[in-house]
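task queued by scheduler; priority normal; single chain, no ligands, no partner chains; default sampling; output format set to structure tokens
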Amino acid sequence: MTNHKPVNQKAWWLVLPVILCVAFSAVLPLMTVVNYSVQDIISPQRRVFVGTEWFVMVMRDSDLHLALWRQIQFSLAVLLIEIPLGIALALSMPAAGWRASVVLVIVALSLLIPWNVVGTIWQIFGRSDIGLLGHTLLKLGVDYSYTGNPDHAWWTVLIMDVWHWTPLVALLAYAGLRSIPDAYYQAARIDGASQWAVFRYIQLPKMRGVLMIAVLLRFMDSFMIYTEPFVLTGGGPGNATTFLSQYLTTKAVGQFDLGPAAAFSLIYFFIILLFCFVLYNWMQSLGTSEKEQGHA
């Protein structure tokens, strides 16, 4: 006969606070949104079940389609600029010593600025009368106006986001670089590998984990951007910088259409999940294919 030791299940009680926090901050609000999305709230005492009517109405909204396309363009531009720029910045940073500490602090400064303050800074920075950027471009003969030109507004929001969040990618990439053992670099020097070969076959593969985190974080954050463009341009001129989050806020707060806003919130949530799923699996497939090529 085999004697089975009793299993102590008391450790599960340690997880209870986490479960309660997640339920309070995520599950309960999500269930409330689901409840609102299938009802027409006429008054606090009167509600009518409408099923999927709000979902159909929101999906047919042409303004939503434009905001979604604008949001996808912005998020893709953020990834295409910030990921390579953050890697380049991390590669140029000192590896050790007091210089590394100083550079790390300087690089992280923009991450300490609140989102609404970032929008205010760039609002002043882009003005042609007192702002350095606007005044300089005006002196160079560029008729720059982020409040009157839709293209200027869109590019200003993009550059503002790049300035604010590229340091996050750089810090993650820097942490990945510092975790690579020196033995890899010593072997590369012995083999006479070029700098590009070291980056291509040593540094980039070893950074894949942190870069995956950087891509997912920056995509999710850029896809939910609200405060900075709202403070800078208010979503204008016109709808040039009205992204999905501002569209949702207009529905929920401005027009007080709780049913359509709740339906769109769920659609918004699933869009982010879908894109993150695709990005994650795409990056995983790239890593798998490179490993197979290496073994071959």
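post-processing summary
- The mean pLDDT is 84.
- Residues 180 and 206 are 7 Å apart (CA to CA).
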